[in-house]
Amino acid sequence: MNQILTVLAVLFTFPVAAQNPEKFSKEINEEGVALYHSEMTSWNGTDIFIENYKNRENIGGYFSYLDAGIPKCVFFSKNQKVIGTISFPANYNPKDAKIDLEERDFTQKETEYFTIRQNALKRIKNDTIFKVYKDTNLNIVPLIRNKVKKVYILTATSAGNTVIFGNDYLITFDNKDQVKNVEKLHNSMIVQKIHDEKTGHTISGMHSHVIENWQMITPTDICTLMLYQKFTEWKSYMTISKKFVSIWNSNNNLVIMKTENFKGMAENILKNKKDKPEPEKKDK
After folding, report:
1. Residue 1, burial from CB neighbour count under 10 angstroms (0-12, 13-18, 19+)
2. DSSP string, the chain
C-alpha cells in the first residue's frame, strides 16, 4: 500500500491532461458528480421530510432532480400526487432547506423523472439480475442529462464503518420511456471498511473491474466516494482493470490511463525512489 501511495502522490503532481488521454474521463466524472448531487439531495431531503410529514402510510416514494439549478427532493403519494418538496441551497445545509408540504400535481419535468423511476422499479421487481444483500437496500436514482434518460441503481447499507461499491446497475430508456437496456456495472458487491481493526483508519482504497464494458471507474464509484468523503477522509481511490487504471482524488480530479502505461510509470517511479540516495545526516 505504501508503494501505491507513493505512485499516487507523484502522479497527481503532473498535469492531468498528460496522464489522461481517455476522452471518457470528463463524462464519467460529470456523471458521477450529477449522481452525487441527486443522492445528497435525497439523503438530506428524506430526513427533513420524514421529520415534518406525519402520514407515513401515504408515502409512495421520492426522487431528486435539479430545477433551474436548485436541488429538489420530491415525495409523492401512492395516488401519484406530490406531497412534499424539499429545496436546498448549493451547500445542502438542512438548516437552509425550504419545506413545502402542499399537495400538487407533478410538473412536466417531474413527470419525466417519475415515469422512468417507476418503470425502473417494475423492472427491478421482475428481473433476476438485481440482487439485494443482507443489511442493504437498492437506491433508485433517475438521471436526465443531455436529453438522455437513465436510472442508476446503487446499493446502500445500514451497517456502520463500511462503504459499499458494486452491486450497482444502469437502466437506459428509449424515447418512449420504456426500458431499452439493463446492465451490471460491477461483477459483485465490494465492502470496504473505513476503520480496520488491524491497521486503524484507512486512508485510501482500491478495487478491480472485470466487466468488459466497465473497465474504467464508474459514475457510481465517484458518487459513492463523494458521498462518504466526510466519513472516510480518503485522499485518493483507485480502480484497476486489464485495460485501464482510474485514479480519483478528494479534490475530484480523475486520472485514467491504460494499465500497461500505469505499470511502466509505477515501476519507473519506484525504481527512481529506490535509487535516489538518502540525504546525509549531519552530526549535531
Report:
1. exposed
2. -HHHHHHHHHHTTS-HHHH---THHHHHHHHHHHHHHHHHHHHHHHHHHHHH---GGGEEEEEEEEETTEEEEEEEETTS-EEEEEE--TT--GGG-EEE---BPPPHHHHHHHHHHHHHHHHHHH-TT----TTEEEEEEEEEETTEEEEEEEEEE-STTEEEEE--EEEEE-TTS-EEEEEESSSSEEEEESEETTTEE----EEE---TT--SPPHHHHHHHHHTHHHH--SEEEEE-SSEEEEEETT--EEEEEHHHHHHHHHHHHHHHHHSPPPPPPP-
Beta bridge partners of 164: 191
What global pTM score does this model have? 0.86
CB 78: neighbour CB atoms within 10 A? Answer: 11
Among 118, 33, 107, 51, smallest CA distance to 74 is for 107
Residue 74, Cβ density class (10 Å: 0-12 exposed, 13-18 middle, ≥19 buried): buried
Place of cell 442493504: 136
How far apart are alpha carbons 208 and 6 in whole angstroms? 19
Taking only the tens place, the pLDDT of each residue in 71-126 is 999 999 999 999 999 999 988 888 999 999 999 999 999 999 999 999 999 999 99
Q: By the 8 A CB rule, do 236 and 4 touch? A: no
Q: Whose grid coordinates read 402520514?
A: 55
pLDDT of 146-178, one tens digit each? Answer: 999 999 999 999 888 899 999 999 999 999 999
In whole angstroms, how large is the CA radius of gyration of the chain? 21
Over pLDDT 70: what percentage of the chain? Answer: 86
